[in-house]
Amino acid sequence: MSHSQAVIFDLYGTLLYLAKETKPYARLFAELGLQRPEELKEARHIALTENFESLVDLVRRINPNGHSKLIDFVSYEREVEEERASATLYPETRDVLEKLGDRELKLGLISNLASPYRKPFFDFGLDQYFDHILFSCDVGLTKPDSRIYQRMIDQLNINPEQALMTGDKVHADVDGPRAIGMRAVHLDRSNVTTNGILTLTGTFDYL
After folding, report:
1. Per DSSP, what are the bridge partners of residue 185?
2. Considering only CA atoms, which of 182, 181, 185 is closest in space to residue 206?
3. How is domain 6-16+89-206 classified at the CATH fold level?
4. pLDDT at residue 6, rounded to an integer
5. How many other CB atoms are found less than 10 A from the CB of residue 199?
6. Own/partner pairs for 186-189, CB < 8 Å, 24+ apart?
7. What are phi and psi of 79, to 5 degrees?
8. How far is CA 3 from CA 11, 57, 104, 158, 160, in A?
9. How much is the pLDDT for 67?
10. Can you give the residue ranges of every domain in the chain?
11. What distance in Å separates the CA atoms of residue 108 and residue 93, rounded to the nearest whole number?
12. Which residues lie below 8 Å from residue 160, measured CB to CB, with a gap of 6+?
């Protein structure tokens, strides 16, 4: 019997990617005049941990007393949509998820993302494979906050050491999970490091 009872995945850069990545949020923050590291950090945190109907609402939340009338929000919204529409599954994604399901492993997903970027996950029908899903914008927490991993562990009803996390960010998808006793493997598609896996298929070697 496998030591693992659950596999938890990151989303972007792991199961799918943006073929046209233009970083509209970063440019919007720059146009707002956010330059200091603490300002940018706070703006990113707000964007990733709260839900907004529009970028106008996001800007009002970040800078309620600011003047944003000159910002071309229509252009930014269009760019977000174009970037989101470019989402593409990695070739092995469905096959790996299906094979893990055949092994009767529980599957979880933890993703740091702004609310518009949830859509591709559902458009591709990836939700059918997962027992529990945690998007940062819904739960108000981001990786590597230990609470988000613990919430997933609790929802899957397992112990931390029974879970394996796979993702492309060392700090968020490897160091963070390991800090609470989970096992984790770095998905390193560019082969920059020597102790990761090149594709999702490598996940099976760690189960």
Report:
1. 166
2. 185
3. Rossmann fold (3.40.50)
4. 98
5. 14
6. 187/10, 187/13, 187/14, 189/13
7. -70, -40
8. 24, 46, 13, 12, 12
9. 66
10. 6-16+89-206, 24-85
11. 14
12. 149, 150, 153, 177, 180, 181, 182
Compute the C-alpha angle 48/49/55, nearest 5°.
60
Structure confidence by residue, pLDDT tens digits, 55-74: 999 999 998 876 667 899 99
Token pair 């005049």 in the structure block, residue: 33
User: Which among 95, 96, 113 has a CA at the least distance from the CA of 17?
Assistant: 113
Tokens for 65, please give them: 């007393």
Reported residue count of the chain is: 207
Contact between 97 and 129 (Cβ < 8 Å): yes
3-state secondary structure 135-191: EHHHHCCCCCCHHHHHHHHHHHCCCHHHEEEEECCHHHHHHHHHHCCCEEEEECCCC
